[in-house]
Amino acid sequence: MAKEVELICTACPQGCTLTAVIENGEVIEVRGYNCKKGIDYGIAEITDPRRMVATTVKVKNGFHPLVPVYTDKPVPKPLIPKVLEEVRKVELTAPVKINTVVLENVLNTGVNVITSRDLPAKE
Amino acid sequence: MQEQYDYIIIGGGVVGCMVARWLSRYEGKILLIDKAADIGMGVSSANTAIVHAGYDPLPGTLKAYMNVKANSMWDQLAGELNFPFERRGDYVVAIGDDELPIVDKLMQQGKQNGVPGMVMLSGAEVRRREKNINPEVSGALWASTGGICDPFQVTIAAAENAVMNGVTILLDTAFEDFIMEGKRIIGIKTNRGDFLSRWVVNSAGLYSDEVMHKAGIRPEFKITPRKGEYFIFDRAEITIDNVLFPVPSAKGKGILVTTTLHENTIIGPNANEIEDKEDTSTTKEGLDEVAAGALKLVPTLNLRYSIANFAGIRPTGNAPCKTPGINYKSDFIIEIPEEVEGFVNLGGIESPGLTSAPAIAAEVVDMLRDAGEKLIEKKEWDPIRPARPRFRNMSHKDRQLLVNMDPRYGQVICRCENITEGEIIAEIHSPVPARTYDAIKRRTWLGTGRCQGGFDMPRVVNILSRELGISPLEVTKRGKGSEFLFRETKEVEE
Amino acid sequence: MALKNIYDVVVVGSGPGGVAAAIEAKKNGADDVLIIERDYELGGILVQCIHNGFGLELLKEDLPGPAYAQRFIEEMLSLGVEYLLNTMVLDITPNRHLFVSSREHGYVEIEARAIVLAMGCRERTRPQIRIPGMRPNGVFTAGTAQRWVNVEGYMPAKDVVILGSGDIGMIMARRLTFEGAKVERVLEIQSYLSGLSRNLVQCLQDYNIPLQLNHTVKRIMGKNRVEAVEAVQVDDKWNFIPGTEEIIPCDTLLLSVGLIPENELSRKAGVKLDPITGGPYVDETFQTNVPGIFAAGNVVHVYDLVDWVSEAGFEAGKRAAQYAISLRNAESRYIPLKAGKNVRYVVPHKLDKSTLAQEDIRLQMRVTRPIEQPVWIEVHDGENLITRKPEKYVRPGEMVTVILKTKNYTDVSKANSLTIDINPR
């Protein structure tokens, strides 16, 4: 019994509508793609959906109270709430540099959470 | 807490603040209370800002008398209190020949009321003076003594002058009941304690009926709130330079198209009875009604250029006119009633209330004197309330001088209206301090432009937090319960 | 930082459009480039756009807004572009004088040979879409809320309804959810999604936030703070469908109902605006109808990818530099003529050196006092004598003339100024 699931591809801003055909938990066909990224996305979204996560982290004595951070690779979708929880526990101290690793290999995903910008200390 | 005053004024709208200012000239301890977080948050902040010439009220009514008497006081008052005021003159415009007799009748009424400087204009002359007018204009009454003001600036200026001259203003203080000794009022109960006083003045606007009932006065008097809705337009897109009235109807003066002292064009108000005195909501039907009504005067008005809309509520009373033979059912109440002692009763002060405010204040003083009060003039009474700098109205040269003198005036906070940090700080530390976002908005005109506060809000919250020494979480829009922020981003609630 | 009287290129706004313009202006030969920013730091709107999706086309990377901004800002600063922070441009004249105000520098006038307008957009407001009802606190545009959550560090919302399925609205739906708020609903008045479909997936579907197309807010309730909104379904003409009303309790209504190019300054400068885009009419070099005034980025029209904003900025900046250089070249052809010893005044006051290459130039002057003996009328450049003319006498009542000849061109072309002295022979 093949099941058909409609997806919107998010690999690039085009947002092509894909149809993934699933049988026995495996994606046997992807239709509607306009480039190879679409096929990869279709398969991944069903078997192992992942997302880039961007949020903020508390900073002591900073020009702003928060510094934005993001995952350097997409993380498994079901882990997002736990990733956010881990990030919430962190407090950095200014000055902070861009691309600083805030959480290494977060939740053993092989993904690092890094800062998106420099943040100088409060004047 | 039982402080003893000579005069307590209930209600810090334009009337209450004018009374406070007039009374502050004489020896005596004066307290003004208002239940809101700022003065003037009721009727006084939401009206058409017109200083009426006085042809509209029925001859013989107190409204007519106070309107005309007060109108000529405004020049001196504006000079003393330094608020913006201009005599533009108003037009009552007749569209089509059928309306000409109504306008004519209005002029006769004006003459009866003693209104000077009125002229009948031909349709052609009106078209010459106002190029946007409906081409079917048949004529207009032009009343040269009509003026425009900023009603909140008037209120705050009077309040500040009163404070400068010794009046105490307590906000967030709501009247609950009178303290009586037999037939004499000796004080009031409020949510912040009891206050004793020889006299109490009722200037509670929409709630003037409820206040006077607590003293057992005029149980049949009732305030029926009547809502009026308005649109404000982008000054870069719409410039009407005149004050344009349609011919009046039974409902009232009608839907105006008028300029304001901020150079915005404003249209409104309609007039619809409502149940709830606090219902300042705008309605789709009401706004549509205002838009349609305005098109009668200026058919080319395009609603897409409106940048704001709001509603005000008229405190329409049902007190009959005292003059024998005059059949008018909604006159002002301005009296010292006989039934109780120590009470000055002002009720039903709707339009022309703003215009009449200085005359009402003067009348209160006269009534007190007639009632036996020894009013001794304070030698040090200062009628002048100094103006504060308004960056956006200043020339390049003056701006340079201002900023050199105080660099905080160099920091522009409201991008659309060019309001500076220096001005905001000045208002927070003024005699009647601005403590909320709306209080600053009313005083400086910040946040009223095209972006409606989109840029300035976070900054104003920070400035209020810093200047008042409170957390940004405590900063409000219009008093307790209207805070902007719930918590810090990283504090999660359990 | 001391302000100069005149800059080659002044850029208004340090968002992606402005920074790109400043970079290319410098790379294309502009000497003095100044970028003016009203906020506490450079970056414009990117400072608060902490989500990914920036740089996919231009950098082939998937960056958050601040990282994208920092990349270009670092390049801009390394090229020597000057900048002003906390500075508001209040007025621009058609002849390219800017009036700016800041705490640090006060209220000053700055002249620019070329200007690039890069002020971006403001957000459409509640009154512009005329939502009736009470006017409590808690009705915010998505951008203002974003500023609070991401930069100021405060949550302006607990329980949110979002009006508008534009990208900002959907991004904020996810952002607020990440920080512990509850997004009840996203309402969209059109029958189609307003923003990118990827955001539908990543911001709404991922978090089970319901989207209702063909819906809008009929009324806002609450006196001091929003207590609820009344949602309603609409037909294809946006009329309310009776009976479809639903009261949704919430404490915040976020508006994501459109961006409007912010062109108040452009208007003051005499720039003509297209009523459809809301931005200036521009040619392929992004020059507006006012010579020397260019515009780039969202201030021209609303972009969906920042990469294209940078591209537009590059073009505008390059062209602005070219314009400035051509002006400068024209200016440097001119040198002043100064009245020296015993000369009261000289006319002309300045001359275009290149004219002298083609034709003689007549100098006319009057002396301060009479000298009733032979004199030399001498024209020099401060060091070298260029030409001189003998006169038997000079009197204030009689105008004196000296002719600079084309043969003097070579000497004059090296001079920064010319002085005329009268010395006894």
Structure in words:
The complex is a heterotrimer of chains A (123), B (494) and C (425). Chain A has 2 domains: 3-48, N-terminal domain of TfIIb; 54-115, CPE0013-like (CPE0013-like fold, Roll), CATH 3.10.530. Chain A contains 2 helices and 10 strands; from the N terminus they run βββαββββαβββ. The longest helix of chain A has 12 residues, at 36-47. With 123 residues, chain A is α+β, with helices and mostly antiparallel strands. The relative contact order of chain B is 0.16. With 494 residues, chain B is of the alpha+beta class. Chain B contains 13 helices and 23 strands. Chain B is globular. In chain C, helix 1 packs across helix 8 (306-332) and helix 5 packs parallel to helix 6. Chain C folds into 3 domains: 6-122 and 260-332, FAD/NAD(P)-binding domain, CATH 3.50.50; 125-257, 3-Layer(bba) Sandwich (FAD/NAD(P)-binding domain); 334-424, Immunoglobulin-like (Sandwich), CATH 2.60.40. Chain C is elongated and about 105 Å long. Chain C has helices at residues 16-27, 65-78, 126-129, 142-152, 167-178, 197-204, 264-268, 306-332, 353-358, 409-413, and strands at 6-12, 33-36, 82-84, 88-92, 97-102, 106-117, 121-123, 139-141, 154-155, 159-163, 182-188, 211-213, 215-221, 228-233, 246-249, 252-255, 259-261, 293-295, 334-339, 343-347, 350-352, 361-367, 375-380, 385-391, 400-404, 418-424. The chains are: A alpha+beta (123), B alpha+beta (494), C alpha/beta (425). Chains A and B meet through loops of A and loops of B. Strand 23 (487-488) of chain B pairs antiparallel with strand 9 of chain C.
